Amino acid sequence: MFDHAPDPLAEKRPLVTPACPGTEPIAPADLVATPRWWVRLIWYFSVMLMSCVLVAGGMRLDRTDLEAPFYYDLDALLYLTMVKATVERGSHWQNERMGAPGVQQLYDFPVIDHLHFAMIRGLAAMVPEPPAASSEEPTPSPRVRKLLKVYNLYNLLTYPLTVLTAMWAFRVLRLTLPAAAVGGLLYAFLPYHQDRWEYHYFLAAYWMVPLSILPALALCRGQFLFYHRNPDGSYSRRFLSWSAVGYVVLAAATASAGAYYAFFACAAYAFGGLYGWVVFRTWRAVAGASYLIALVVAFGLINHYPAYVYQYRYGKNPITERFPEEAENYGLKLAHMLLPAPDHNLAFFSRVRAMYASPQRPAEAESAGSLGLFAGAGFVGLITILVLPYPRRWPEGPVGGLIVYLVLLGTVGGLGSVFNLLVTAQIRAYNRIGVYIAFLAMFVVLWWVDRYLITRAQPRWRLLRYPTWAAIAVLGFLDQTPYSWFKPRVVEEIEKHAERFRADTRFFTKIEHAMTPGDRVFCLPYIPFPESPPAFKMAGYEHARGYVITDNLVWSFGAIKGREADAWQMDVATPLRKGQIKALINRVVAGGFDGVLIDGRGFAPPRTPQEAATSLSAIDVVNEINQAYKEELHRPSVSLPEVIHDSRNQFFLDLRPYREIYRANHPDAFAALAQYEREWAAPIWLGGFYTPEPSGYSQEFRYGPPDGNLVIVNPSDRIRTFRLVMKFGIDSRGLFKMKLSGLVDDAFELDKGDWDAKVYGVDKSYLVEVPPGRHALRIRCTPPRDFVPN
């Protein structure tokens, strides 16, 4: 099952002779007797169990609430929504309880970690739903408690899973069991793992990385994927073999374990193919690498298939605005890998890292994670060997070359920056390649120590072999894990997030108890989804808490930006001004919503007396809504049912009484407004339009691509007439030719040099007839021949 079963990644035959015959050393595992299968099984099980004990003790799980998230902030709230949809619905692609008045559909924001989602579904099937709590204080429902337990357990399981895959990979690379065990343990506890934690939930689940890198190393050693070497030295293709099936399964798993890791694996395969071609002088190395890359890409396309179908029907909506220069902001830095972890067990090392982490330094947005002393020593040793005139055999030559290539790909201003400029900017966080570099560097230093301990003839070295590995494991673990582990500080940190979750639970559970299943809640302030900057002191995913904690309510947050529901929310909710709240609430209740959530953290205080005259706080919004209710009811002493958060800066108002009295007092006006909201025509900007403006002003200003579409969605059953009023402008000198087609047929030219300095742009007005359905205005811009972008 583990070590000596048929290996899909490496056929069990003598390796192809390297370029310099006789220079490849004997592997450490070949210098000792092969352990029995049950011995190997005990080793694997014991080290995985040890990792569970270490993470349980380090995070003090005996004092940790598994039914509250370990990390409850920022991107963790996004992952919680997807995991909840997966556990409850079986899929994260579509969620009927987010994005009202529409349905959240993630086809414009594809998260293709289907391997992890499958693991989560399997784990959810094994975790029973706990009984209802008997406490009088509002507590999460059994469904929510099960969700959080599954969410936390999978994060914890990534440690033993990484131990298993890393240990198995090291055995495939012919390390002895003690070396593979120490390597698997240290690789599972990389600082990268703790840095990602539940903040980058799926990046922390890097247990596929050791398996995905093996084909690249096989290519470097002359094992050409999908090819068999015959006794006469010739090669024959083998697409129908167990090894070929293994590569197909590996490609499918790699493509389904995260787009970043799949991309980096393919980059490593490309290097392995070129390296094998040069060393062994056969094109079959490149061919084998190409076959595997094609498989990974093909499975990646299959994972994206729902998104492609959706975007073919409704148009491309590139909501994740990626730009080539982001490869510099999130690039790999050697200092991050070689310096200690920020929260090191030794205060001196922590101070060193803190001194480096200055906001004045470039590319400090995200760290690659420290390699630790053990893998760091392998990295420095390999670079030294490559620089100095030292004979480079296996593994130093191929592994060192692969590491240098990965560094050149990921480093700030490196090959990745060129790729992002010329090919696509969707891969931007090249620092995440550090987890591949860590595995390779760790393998080499394990190889060195393993061979040294085995080849020493003196009896004392044989006696010191196991104590040496134990010392490396202990020192490496202490070097790589945070200072807070095993101490009350880790409990305090986790409890801080748990207590915030409990406060939210009290708030949202009261809301759910006050409402009926299926009621809709409109969230203020309006925040686009996904990947939006904070609204004052409110992070971009804070509105997701309502969906995570409740079982039956429907929330407006989560409508994909750039689509119909998001356009309606933005039109209704922005900008918020004094005296406009009654009109906003009228539209909200006419649009089918039953309550409103008002988060005061998203309202910025006025900076000038002029702003104070028009800006609002959360209390102002609550007061204006209640004032509108009092006016409709003609009773100055009443107010709407209200729920207030423990923090006193978040409020919920039940709008059902207001809707009923408003409908009773103005039946014709309410019916007309309800029809207006049902038939509201949404303007959708597709094909590359984007806005750099802050939330609330994005409908006023957009940059356009050379060829994009403004799609007008008419949800009614009749032809409707609209007047389009737009201003076209350019940022560069020269003559730009504009061509409009579809709903409008027009052509004109723009020349910035001819404009009045006080007038930026050319005003255009068109009367258009829009039939029912979706209809596009195509906007094309042809720049002058000497135009240079940016």
Please provide a brief summary of the model:
By secondary structure, this protein is of the alpha+beta class. Helix content is 47%, strand content 11%. The chain starts with 36 loop residues before the first helix and ends in an 8-residue tail after the last strand.
DSSP strand tally: 16
Q: Measured on Cα atoms, how large is the radius of gyration? A: 30 Å
Biggest sheet, strands in spatial order? 6-5-7-9-8
Low-pLDDT residue intervals, each spanning 5 or more residues = 1-22
**Helix proportion:** 40-55%
Largest sheet descriptor: 5 strands, mixed
Shape: globular
Give the mean pLDDT. 91
- CA(first)-CA(last) distance: 56 Å
Secondary structure tally, helices: 27
Helix/strand-derived class?
Answer: alpha+beta
Strand content: 5-15%
Structural commentary:
The chain has 790 residues and is α+β, with helices and mostly antiparallel strands. It contains 27 helices and 16 strands. The protein has a five-stranded mixed β-sheet with strand order 6-5-7-9-8, with helices on both faces. The protein is globular and about 100 Å long. Mean pLDDT is 91; it is low at 1-22.
What is the topological layout?
Elements: H1 37-58, H2 75-89, E1 94-95, E2 104-105, H3 114-126, H4 142-172, H5 177-188, H6 191-196, H7 209-220, E3 227-229, E4 235-237, H8 242-255, H9 259-280, H10 284-303, H11 305-314, H12 326-329, H13 334-338, H14 347-356, H15 372-387, H16 396-410, H17 415-422, H18 434-455, H19 459-480, H20 488-514, E5 520-524, H21 545-549, E6 554-555, H22 564-573, H23 581-590, E7 595-599, H24 609-614, H25 618-633, E8 642-644, E9 650-654, H26 656-665, H27 667-678, E10 682-686, E11 707-714, E12 720-728, E13 735-742, E14 746-751, E15 762-770, E16 773-782
Parallel strand pairs: 5-6, 5-7
Antiparallel strand pairs: 1-2, 3-4, 7-9, 8-9, 10-11, 11-16, 12-15, 13-14, 13-16
